[in-house]
Amino acid sequence: MLIIFRKKTFLGVSLILILLFRIIYQSTWVTAAESKVGIFASYSFSVLLGFSMREEMERGRSIPSLGSCPASAIPKLSWSPTVGVDLPAWFSSVSIALQSDSDYDGGLLKMGTPMVCLRDGSLPLPDASDNAFKVASSFKNGSSAQITSIQNMEQCIPLERNMTIKLTNEQISPGVLYLGLFNRIGSMRTQSKMINRGPTFTYTSVITIEECISSANWGPYCNETLNPLSCSSAYTDPNMKPVDTIVVCGNALGRSCHRENESKMYVIDILEVSEQLSIFAKDIGISEVSSSNKTRNASEITLMCYARYDAMPLSTIYDFSGNISDTPLLIHAPKVGRWFISVIPVRLSDVKNESLKACYSMESQVHQCPEGKAGLNCTFGKYILQTYVHMNSDYVDYYYLPLDETMPSSTTDFSLDSLSRSSSVLETDPSWTYFIMNIPKGAAGKSIQVKLMSDQNIDYEIYSRYGGLASSQSWDYFYSNSTSNSDGATYYKLYNSSQVLVRFYILYAREGTWTFGLKNLTQTTSTSQSTTRMSISLDSCPSRCSNHGRCRSAIDSSGLTLFSYCQCDRNQGGFDCSVVLVTPKGHFWQSFSLIASNSAALLPAFWALYQRSLAEWFLFMASGTSSGLYHACDVGTYCVLDFRVLQFMDFWLSFMAVVSTFVYLTTISESSKRTLLTAVWILTALMASTGATRSSGWLGY
């Protein structure tokens, strides 16, 4: 009896060790791609929740709006529903308080450090380039003091256990602010894996938005009075060919007077794409309060003017500045939206006298070209692009074409040469052609694709800009040639660059107005017969996920924003699945090793057959065979049955093989063993059939 028990013990231990070897080896294989790039962790994305439920309070400087998110876990390799924080036009500040179990202590930043990323107007995408990691490296202890402006870029901050980010309307613009929590960033965040490994963390967040009681007050403390420049008249300039329209705007309250180094804030709204905004002061003088409000001329008075788009200007943070006591401040191609203007008298007199005030009449002029014209002296063509929807089983794309009743709705591109030749009033070289498109609300999770195609040579440069007219001096993204373009910018991705094809994406483009200026490098009198066509579209996923993944779409929790992302296959990664994580040769050997590892089941099966334990022999053989078929299907070799069926069989039979080994080692009666095995068979089958191996469980497939 002792000899039989020792044989059983040896058999049981051997079987358990072999099964553990299979499990460890197969689990290690699925992370081989991670070892390629030196990272052994998982990645995920979650967006903080916030809303604007106004809480009525007694009159004060502001009314707080409070939003909170209960304790939530960041799931591995998943993209959580996205919600943006809507900042009203009269907000003063937004405060984001975070508590998490992150282990970052403010030391050296690593690729595995969780981050919170912020972006104004569209979704953050930190692993589109290395810029987010470089920016995050400059922050210490979650401080927002170093955030000067996130109007035109993305900011990422390492996530700590307890941190608070506070941003004022001097740092960010009204509108939708998107916030994202990333549990590790990098190319492998979008890679499909069978088993997810790496740390997870939980977090809670509270978002507080403080709003000014009156829309006439602004600033971080709502102590700045806004003086709107109302536009009451417009006239045409007969000296311009073609004649342009000038909209005159002024302070409805008349002349303004204030002391030295005391700022006065003005605001003007630009309603459409314009050529120029002129800001100047008239009737400048000095008023001495002690002399019965007597006003006298001041030839050396200095009125410093600071202008900023969609946010409060400071003497240290502004878009444009100048002394408007001498010459107007000219802003070429101003962006559509609200402009804030601060005027500060700097030098009233050589003698210090606190009773002196600078007085002036504030005025501005908005220059607008006639319909269909834009650019230098309104001499070039401007075309409004209309949206056409193209749908198929996998994608919904929006193509933008010039308004033309003769153009069929199935067309996805248009002739650029014909529009370029007819757009210039004067035969100037080079000529420009402008296109204006609008991205509707809720489409911030899509990307703009721009494509030029020619049968000979592409003789155009492309300049794109958000909100205002694009030019070679003012642009957000541009393409001149294969060596001179915006390559390296966070949200710019160049895919094709040749003499006959240019194709690039603007990733997660902001909602609103976008303009494209195309500079024709050929002579207007050239007789070249080349044909160039252009295509502008709003795509779900860049480059169709490079044909190495599936494009997924989701709607945020508010139901107002649709965003798309790529779910890559096992060998690819990156936001567009263009990064090779496992080479074809490496994939072959890893797949072969994984499938061949199931042959380890032959050892316990042989030993069971030698001991005349036919039931155990059949179970070990079935377990090894089903596991091999499952992994062959999982790595894309061949699927004998449906993937879910094979996954169920692998889990069920492998678990039963372990249980049968333990039951075999027991000294209970044979009837008790059969009863116990029957109960375990039913229980494990029930567990597997109710989703024990589904992707939302412990498997990340």
Describe the structure.
- This protein is of the alpha+beta class.
- It folds into 4 domains: 141 residues; 175 residues, Jelly Rolls, CATH 2.60.120; 124 residues, Jelly Rolls (Sandwich); 168 residues, Sandwich (Jelly Rolls).
- 19% of the residues lie in helices and 36% in strands.
- It is built from 9 helices and 37 strands.
- Strands 10, 11, 12, 13, 14, 15, 16, 17, 18, 19, 20 and 21 form a 12-stranded mixed β-sheet that branches.
- The radius of gyration is 33 Å and the shape is elongated.
- The two termini are 48 Å apart.
- It comes from Kalanchoe fedtschenkoi.
Brief characterization of the structure:
The chain is an alpha+beta fold. It has four domains: 2-34 and 582-689; 44-218, Sandwich (Jelly Rolls); 244-367, Jelly Rolls; 373-540, Jelly Rolls.
Spatial gap, N to C terminus: 48 Å
**Number of structural domains:** 4
Q: Helical stretch count? A: 9
CATH T-level fold name of the largest domain: Jelly Rolls
Domain EGF-like: 537-578
Organism: Kalanchoe fedtschenkoi
Protein name: EGF-like domain-containing protein
Membrane topology: Multi-pass membrane protein
